[in-house]
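Blackboard transcription, Thursday session:
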Amino acid sequence: KQEVTQIPAALSVPEGENLVLNCSFTDSAIYNLQWFRQDPGKGLTSLLLIQSSQREQTSGRLNASLDKSSGRSTLYIAASQPGDSATYLCAFQGAQKLVFGQGTRLTINP
Amino acid sequence: ETGVTQSPTHLIKTRGQQVTLRCSSQSGHNTVSWYQQALGQGPQFIFQYYREEENGRGNFPPRFSGLQFPNYSSELNVNALELDDSALYLCASSLSGNYGYTFGSGTRLTVV
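(Written on the board underneath:)
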């Protein structure tokens, strides 16, 4: 069974800190891995897409890495801001579908 | 380019009724998929359509069905609604291949 685990389930940090969110998956035969942000009651906003041949992607203060051999991905957020507060979901693309973790609920305190 | 749009945004139905949710794909995308997200959980894959044919299905009963139209828009139909069907339903479109998915804002369905 394909599974995705995200650790921690929740995280609360003061503004300005650098932080790392972790994602592990059981299927090494992934096509790509995608990180999303979800605000309460809203849809998913794509943050970063790492294709299977890549090892990392960067966008602004965000950096995501992918290690297929160990089945792990990390999302690094630099200089966190209160506006970064949201739930962060990772998902790997298997055949015809995305498999999601349960997310990390992030709170950045001013 | 326009993103993925879903309608309606909120819906309340009675147990046993039927519901249709709609989705317009992002321009240029030829694949659409649907996900169910219960409160506090990650989205679960329902099914995917490519060229108007279902080409992948998750662990959902047959009362969940769908359509994809020639313009790549899509519908999700749920018959005989149950209380556990209450969730956020998300539509995603993509271009076949390894290009990632774009999600809509979702439809919040409440079954009472």
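Lecturer's comment: Chain A has a mean pLDDT of 93.
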